């Protein structure tokens, strides 16, 4: 396995709930896990994320729900429409519904289809094409 140069590791309140959400709903793959540490390493296409149940070790302050305030994780996927349909089939209310957005990058206009959802701990996930 090739590791990305940047892999977010998120503290979660319940590793089993997180695993259920990411694997069974979003179709992430478990690359490996350390159940004794309540840790999982997941991937979806070229996106990699690590999760560990709150043990106090990495915390720089008190954690309270909604985790990750002020951050969103953008993930490019090959079938953003299919993933969007899947989350709707699971009755997950999007944080932002699917739409086409335009972002300026210098002189270039980047156009992407995207939607946003929150995971069980409130982390904001943005899926794009």
What is the topological layout?
Blueprint: E1 9-12, H1 15-25, E2 29-34, E3 39-44, E4 47-53, E5 72-76, H2 80-89, E6 96-105, E7 108-118, E8 124-128
Parallel strand pairs: 1-4, 5-8
Antiparallel strand pairs: 2-3, 3-4, 6-7, 7-8
Pfam family, one: Glyoxalase
InterPro entries: Bleomycin-R (IPR000335), Glyas_Bleomycin-R_OHBP_Dase (IPR029068), Glyas_Fos-R_dOase_dom (IPR004360), VOC_core (IPR037523)
Domain VOC: 2-129
Task: Briefly say what this structure is.
This is Bleomycin resistance protein. The protein is an alpha/beta fold.
State the shape.
Answer: globular
- Counting DSSP E segments of at least 2 residues, the number of strands comes to 8
Beta fraction:
35-45%
Can you tell me the CATH topology?
A: 2,3-Dihydroxybiphenyl 1,2-Dioxygenase, domain 1
Question: SS-based structural class?
Answer: alpha/beta
Query: What is the H level of CATH, i.e. the homologous superfamily?
Result: 2,3-Dihydroxybiphenyl 1,2-Dioxygenase, domain 1
Largest sheet: 4 strands, mixed
Q: Mind telling me the CATH class?
A: Alpha Beta
Helix/strand order, N-terminal first? EHEEEEHEEE
Indicate how many domains the architecture comprises.
1
Give the % helix.
Answer: 10-25%
User: What's the overall average pLDDT, rounded?
Assistant: 93
Keywords: Antibiotic resistance
Pfam families: Glyoxalase
Family: Belongs to the bleomycin resistance protein family.
Organism: Peptoanaerobacter stomatis
Describe this structure in words.
This protein is α/β, with parallel strands linked by helices and 129 residues long. The protein has a single domain, classed as 2,3-Dihydroxybiphenyl 1,2-Dioxygenase, domain 1 (Roll). Helices cover 16% and strands 42% of the residues. The protein is built from 2 helices and 8 strands. A hairpin with a 2-residue loop joins strand 3 and strand 4. The radius of gyration is 15 Å and the shape is globular. The mean pLDDT is 93. It comes from Peptoanaerobacter stomatis.
């Amino acid at each position: 396995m090739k590791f990305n140069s940047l892999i977010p590791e998120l503290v979660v309140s319940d590793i089993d709930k997180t695993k259920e959400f990411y694997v069974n709903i979003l179709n992430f793959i478990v690359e490996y896990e350390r159940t004794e540490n309540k840790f999982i390493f997941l991937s979806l296409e070229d996106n990699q994320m690590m999760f560990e149940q709150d043990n106090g070790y990495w915390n720089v302050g008190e954690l309270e729900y909604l985790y990750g305030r002020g951050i969103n994780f953008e993930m490019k996927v090959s079938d953003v429409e299919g993933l969007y349909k899947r989350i709707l089939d699971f009755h997950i209310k999007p944080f932002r519904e699917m739409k086409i957005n335009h972002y300026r990058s210098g002189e270039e206009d980047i156009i992407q289809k995207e939607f946003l959802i929150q995971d069980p701990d409130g982390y904001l996930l943005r899926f794009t094409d």
